């Protein structure tokens, strides 16, 4: 990316990494955040920051999913059986490997919280799925 482009100007110093964290966090909630686009842009502007960018995106997105998990815990227990709840009942914390999926991932995290799965069991599965997605994005950024 040539010096002086709008992308480089947008992501000077730590601004880009902060924007990436914020976007990744928000993307893991029901709000739109486009963290994949922001990660791709950071990687194109600063390829030397790849490891930091992937780590920050993964941490931000994982924390966002844990927020959704926490919100699910706040919902009173009642008889309810949606698809996400059934999936989490069947596969437990392992189902959260799919927490990176749009819409479905939010429902899985909320269902895990609602079912009161231990968050320490959920955390590695959520983080692993998020990391895998961001590694794919990083590989695409390196190719294009």
Automatic annotation (TrEMBL):
InterPro entries attached to this UniProt entry: DedA_domain
Keyword vocabulary terms for this entry: Membrane, Transmembrane, Transmembrane helix
Transmembrane segments: 20-43, 50-71, 91-115
Keyword Metal-binding on entry: no
Annotated signal sequence range: none
Name of the protein this chain belongs to: Inner membrane protein YqaA
Annotated source species: Usitatibacter rugosus
């Amino acid at each position: 990316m040539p010096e002086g482009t709008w992308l480089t100007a947008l992501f000077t110093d730590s601004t880009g990494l902060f924007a990436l964290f914020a976007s990744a966090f928000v993307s893991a909630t029901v709000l739109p955040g486009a963290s994949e686009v922001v990660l791709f842009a950071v990687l194109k502007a600063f390829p030397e920051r790849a490891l930091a960018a992937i780590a920050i995106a993964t941490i931000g997105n994982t924390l966002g999913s844990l927020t959704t998990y926490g919100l699910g815990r706040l919902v009173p227990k009642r008889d309810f059986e949606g698809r996400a709840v059934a999936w989490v009942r069947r596969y437990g914390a392992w189902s959260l490997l799919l927490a990176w999926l749009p819409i479905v991932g939010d429902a899985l995290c909320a269902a895990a919280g609602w079912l009161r799965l231990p968050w320490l069991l959920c955390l590695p599965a959520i983080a692993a799925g998020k990391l895998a997605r961001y590694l794919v994005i990083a590989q695409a950024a390196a190719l294009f």
